[in-house]
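Deliverable D4.2, example record:
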Amino acid sequence: MSQLQHSPGPWKAARGHGGGEAYVVDAENWEICVPRTQADIRLIAAAPDMLRLLRVFAIPINSRRLASGELRAALKETDELIARLDGGE
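Output generated by the structure prediction step:
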């Protein structure tokens, strides 16, 4: 089964001209969607980063022999992603 590909990340929140409606765009500035709330915008914009980090942690650490520095970096980035989802920058 082939895996569907999402639009290239990172995704980010954007606003229409003159500060209009908020929406989410991909790395090439193509509109992904028009969310209803700021929380939706943060969650949707973070989706590619969440998927990437889930792939890091989903593979058993023993079978991957994840280096401690790589694990610490992934954990730090996960903490930053959670803060971003909670409304921080």
